[in-house]
Amino acid sequence: AGGVGVNPFVGEYGMVVMWLKVEAVTALGLPTFNMMVRMTGLTRGVAAWCVLYLLALFQTAWFLLGCAWSLGSVVPKACRDGSLGDAAAFHTMFWISTIWLCMV
């Protein structure tokens, strides 16, 4: 147990990298969608605001998940310290979560 093939957090298709990919999409998608809603004049529509609200809720939940993973002990130590390979994805998740917590 704890090897690369067994642990779902490790590797280029692991959960840490997946977290970063989804975070990148939501971090760019939420402001882009917000600008599109404002530029097209859909600000009076309830549906557009509901979608924006749901996107913001998802992004907050995703950030909290990243905080739990990066600041807790869920991600294996070998993934955090780089003994299984490049730890850049974990460190990126850690700093995104830490900066987000400092801003909140």
Could you outline the blueprint of secondary structure elements for this entry?
Layout: H1 15-40, H2 46-71, H3 77-81, H4 88-103
Explain this structure to me?
This protein is an all-alpha fold and 104 residues long. It has helices at 15-40, 46-71, 77-81, 88-103. It is elongated and about 50 Å long. 12% of the residues are buried. The mean pLDDT is 87.
Q: Structural class of the helices, strands and pairings?
A: mainly alpha
Radius of gyration: 17 Å
How does the major sheet shape up? none
The fraction of residues in strands falls at under 5%
Low-confidence segments, given as residue ranges, are: none
Assembly type of the chains comes to single chain
Strand tally? 0
Elements, N to C (H/E): HHHH
Helix content percent band:
over 70%
What is the general shape?
elongated
Report, as a whole number of angstroms, the end-to-end distance. Answer: 37 Å
Number of helices: 4
Mean pLDDT: 87
Give me a quick take on this structure.
The protein is 70% helix and 0% strand. With 104 residues, the protein is mainly α.
